[in-house]
Write a structure and sequence with these properties.
Elements lengths: L1 H9 L4 H14 L4 H21 L8 H25 L3 H19 L4 H14 L3 H20 L6 H12 L8 H12 L4 H16 L3 H11 L12 H16 L3 H17 L3 H20 L3
Helix pairs in contact: 1-2, 2-3, 2-4, 3-4, 4-5, 5-6, 6-7, 7-8, 7-9, 7-10, 8-9, 9-11, 10-11, 10-12, 11-12, 12-13, 12-14, 13-14
């Protein structure tokens, strides 16, 4: 395996080994929990020691090597926190997330504040704290739009109009779609990260029975064409599935069928058996229910 080769060449304490362990942990997160936990623990041990003390090994030398591995440590801590959250180990998930936030601020200043707020929103959401999750997500969106105002002065008035409603206390319906349309314009149509953000917020809205708002967000997310994967983007696959699931929940199963069909095709092409099985089950339900609906 790649891990065995790198360990043989470099030893356990090397950046290549840590990167490989992190990749393996990501792959094993959903199916082999104990294997993923082992890889996370080994990678974190090396990366934390390296950033705290530096390392004189070849390929990891000195303060520069320690600095170079900090982004990987942030990624590893964030993924490990998500791994723990998925297993409802919420108290344990707090520490790696807090450490990731600390390093993010040290390394990037306020540049990634919106990302930090989003991580907090995700943790609140999986804990069932929906109002808190939405508030954190709203603050993240406001912060991100404010950052763009300084670089897009010609569009500042349009952004400020959206922000005025987004920040207004007691607004009955937040202009989430308008906000993300602006971000899509600024970041480009290839921003799958933006689609992932919209996906998460849509799930939160759906959990609060705000189906129309969730549907509008998911349909907006489908306008994004992933710059990395194109039409086979895993984020697009999840967006299609989430929209199909929402339509099923609101008894519009015939509309859900083509969305779930496309989602299933992407999951199968990408070899994602877990998502494929989940999507296949939803497609079978919707196909059967749609056949019983009146034309």
């Amino acid at each position: 395996s790649a891990l065995a080769r790198f360990r043989a060449c470099f030893g356990e304490q090397h950046l290549e080994v840590a990167e490989t362990r992190l990749a393996l942990a990501r792959l094993a997160s959903w199916s082999e929990g104990s294997e993923a936990a082992e890889h996370f623990a080994a990678a974190l041990l090396f990366l934390e020691r390296g950033t705290d003390e530096g390392n004189a090994d070849e390929g990891n030398a000195g303060e520069g090597g320690a600095r170079a591995r900090e982004p990987l440590l942030i990624e590893c801590l964030t993924l490990y926190s998500g791994f723990l959250q998925a297993r409802r180990r919420f108290e344990e998930a707090e520490a790696p997330l807090a450490r990731a936030e600390e390093l993010t601020r040290e390394l990037y200043g306020d540049e990634l504040t919106s990302e930090i707020l989003r991580r907090r929103a995700q943790l609140a959401q999986v804990r069932g704290e929906l109002e808190s999750a939405e508030e954190l997500g709203r603050r993240a969106l406001v912060f991100e739009l404010r950052r763009w105002v300084t670089t897009r002065p010609d569009e500042a008035l349009e952004v400020e109009r959206v922000l005025d409603v987004l920040e207004r206390a007691g607004a009955s319906e937040r202009p989430y779609v308008a906000a993300f349309q602006l971000l899509r314009r600024f970041r480009g149509d290839g921003s799958f990260e933006l689609a992932g953000w919209m996906n998460g917020l849509a799930r939160l809205l759906a959990d609060q029975e705000r189906h129309a708002e969730a549907e509008a967000l998911l349909r907006e997310a489908l306008h994004i064409r992933c710059r990395a994967y194109g039409a086979d983007c895993p984020v697009r696959q999840r967006t299609l599935f989430s929209l199909g699931q929402l339509l099923e929940r609101t008894e519009r199963t015939r509309e859900a069928v083509p969305l779930l069909t496309e989602s299933l095709a992407i999951a199968e092409k990408n070899g994602d058996e877990r998502d494929a099985a989940e999507t296949r089950a939803a497609l079978l339900r919707c196909t059967a229910a749609g056949a019983e609906e009146r034309p």
